[in-house]
Amino acid sequence: MRVLPRIGPGGLALPGSSAPNTDTELVERVRKLQPLIRSHALRTEQERRVTREVVEALTDAGVHRMNIPRRYGGHQSSARTQVDVLSEVSAACGSAGFTALIQAGCAFIAALFPDEAQDEIFARPDVRVSGTLVPKAKARAVDGGYVVDGTSPFATGCQDSDWHLLTAVSHSGDDRPPELLWTAVPMSDLDVLDDWQVSGLAGSGSNSVVARGVHVPAHRVLPLGPLLGGSFPSRRNSADPFYGMPVLLLFCVWTAAGALGPARTALAEFGDRVHQRGITYTIYERQHEAPVTHLQFAEAAMKISCAELLTDEFVSLIDARVADGNAYTPRERARIRAQSGYAARLCKEAVDLIGSASGASSLRLDAPVQRAVRDLNALNLHSFVNPTANLELYGRVLSGLDAGTPFL
């Protein structure tokens, strides 16, 4: 049985707590888990969900507490720490990293709900929260809340979550446009479809969830419109600069970590591999002696370095805004989203290059390189990460136009 931390006044962990004392300690805890996570990567992909052993290890390390309010035993970790933690998980297994970043992100969103809902969701600090932003379900207003029906795809990590933030569309019946709502639903109230059979991030368990006449009380509903405008109903968190971070910009932080981890691992493994194999049908008995390898290695390394620099820039800006309380300009918001997508593209290009230089033996399913190629391709296809779409909206803002989307 997991021992929960003892929480003192102000939400601080008391002696004997399993919570890390510093952000550095949290990163180190996760780094020590890499051998375990890596050893389960193939099984994670085969089972199409993160293994129970890895889920429990990440939970015990405190990964899922990074965005939970301190008064509930959470960490409220800086954007910098979250990049460091999630990139370490992703370096060992892209699917485990993507699942962790979605659950950490959904915990942040849950902290924006009314306080009564938070008391329910964060009844224990090691709670795991999943969520979807695809508005496929319908919400019908009733006395005291809503009744939700429908199927919502891409519910990453739902099988190992306690709560799910289900996006639903509510039609008022008059001339007003439909309203998008995040509804907090216990996973026990939802059905999970066995429909996650994909080529990339295959172990993330991003199955569809189904709501069948689920009643959601009003205090467990978060309208997206006001949230995108910077307003949310939590009274206790509304004055906390940490929760003033725009959630969509934080998603840029989380996905950048999901790209950097696999890219770094692929580069390191390529460095080992070139000393252990030759280039078939050439004079090179050792790949590292070939000039083409030097060019490939250097270009892949430079692409990853550029991705790291882009990420460092926008993460520094986000952490600075928490400290100084200044508002983001539309150009800053658009640039952060563009930088996140571009960093993901650079990581994909680097790993594609590494994969193409790794020989036919790297196609084996137990070879990490081919999994990194597929995982980064999948990440770049995510509608919020998509580099081309993000460049377009940034270009619109640079050209003096509206971004064309409220999702900034």
List the helices and strands and how they pair.
Layout (H helix, E strand, L loop, with lengths): L22 H10 L1 H6 L1 H7 L4 H10 L17 H14 L1 H17 L4 H7 L7 E3 L5 E6 L2 E11 L7 E8 L8 E8 L4 E2 L14 E11 L3 E3 H5 L18 H27 L17 H34 L5 H27 L11 H14 L5 H12 L10
Parallel strand pairs: 1-4, 2-4
Antiparallel strand pairs: 2-3, 3-7, 4-5, 5-8, 6-7
Helix pairs in contact: 1-5, 5-6, 5-9, 6-9, 9-10, 9-11, 9-12, 10-11, 11-12, 11-13
Labels describing this entry:
single chain; 408 residues; alpha+beta; Butyryl-Coa Dehydrogenase, subunit A, domain 1; 13 helices; disordered N terminus
Structure in words:
The structure is a single chain. The chain has 408 residues and is of the alpha+beta class. The protein folds into 3 domains: 9-121, Acyl-CoA dehydrogenase/oxidase, N-terminal domain (Butyryl-Coa Dehydrogenase, subunit A, domain 1, Orthogonal Bundle); 129-226, Butyryl-CoA Dehydrogenase, subunit A, domain 2 (Beta Barrel), CATH 2.40.110; 245-398, Butyryl-CoA Dehydrogenase, subunit A, domain 3. It is 47% helix and 13% strand. Helix 10 runs antiparallel to helix 11 (330-356). The longest helix is centred in the last third of the chain and has 34 residues, at 291-324. Mean pLDDT is 92; it is low at 1-17.
Tell me briefly what this model is.
The chain is of the alpha+beta class and 408 residues long.
What is the top-level CATH class of the largest domain? Mainly Alpha
Count up the domains: 3
Unreliable stretches: 1-17
Helix coverage percent: 40-55%
Order of helices and strands: HHHHHHHEEEEEEEEHHHHHH
CATH architecture of the largest domain: Up-down Bundle
Rg (C-alpha, Å): 22 Å
Alpha-carbon distance between the termini? 41 Å
Largest pleated sheet: 8 strands, mixed
Structural class: alpha+beta
Share of residues in strands: 5-15%
Number of helices: 13
Mean pLDDT: 92
Per DSSP E runs of 2 or more residues, the count of β-strands stands at 8
What name does CATH use for the topology of the largest domain?
Butyryl-CoA Dehydrogenase, subunit A, domain 3
Shape: globular
- The assembly state of the depicted protein chains is single chain
CATH superfamily of the largest domain: Butyryl-CoA Dehydrogenase, subunit A, domain 3
